[in-house]
Amino acid sequence: MTTLIHPTAVIYPGADLHPSVKVGPYAVIGEKVKIGAETEIGAHVILDGHTEIGSHNRIFPGAAIGLETQDLKYDGSMSQVKIGNNNRIREYVTINRATHAGEATLIGDNNLLMAYVHVAHNCVIGDQVIIANSVALAGHVEVESNAVIGGMLGVHQFVHIGCYAMVGGMSRVDRDVPPYMVVEGHPCRVRGLNKVGLRRSGIAEIGNGKVLRELKQAYRLLYRSQESFEIALAKLDQFTSEQTCHLRDFLHASQQPGRRGSLPGHRGGTADSPED
Asked: Using alpha carbons only, what angle is made at residue 80 by residues 97 and 53, rounded to the nearest 5 degrees?
């Protein structure tokens, strides 16, 4: 281990590091931290609290993970940060542990968090999510897998961001972002279907294009027709693909008590709009 851990690093007794973990200069690792195989900890990284980090992660210089939440309700209880495998956590990212005892801030696998991203208490991030530079996620934000979040923006607490959504940079995200959509603006609005993301993921080719056709129809009903949102949402019951059903269920859940509601779009547009 002495060849993999820089002599200036501070590793507290009780920290559980796999023998293959690399630790850079002046990193500080607390006594309740657990790190899996082949993970690399960069210079000046701080890992604290009840923090579990999986295998093959790269954590770049200056990141601070597992420090206590900035939530004023925090009373010192044992809460956690849990991070999966194959993540890249870039320079000066901050990931806070959850607020209450037994709760955790969760990050899945194969994610890229670019420089200066802040992940607040009780956030949940899925797999293969990309979050660009200087994004701040407030407490209890949930990001489904394969979402892409552009740089220099803020996400309001308790907001949910759906899978394969694309959030444009410098937006103000104050309500739920529907899956498979492109959203952007200040305030944020649904601008179109994320056709590029659907093609890159292979979803557009499922069923000889049936899924893409259904999602286009659903988008037009929800955001381009003259129907009320409630009636348009009810009409999504006619579709059968897994993706369109997920969109419908996500939007229903967004209307429930305790949720922020979903972002509106620009309604009443023409069917041949480039946003379609």
From this structure: 100
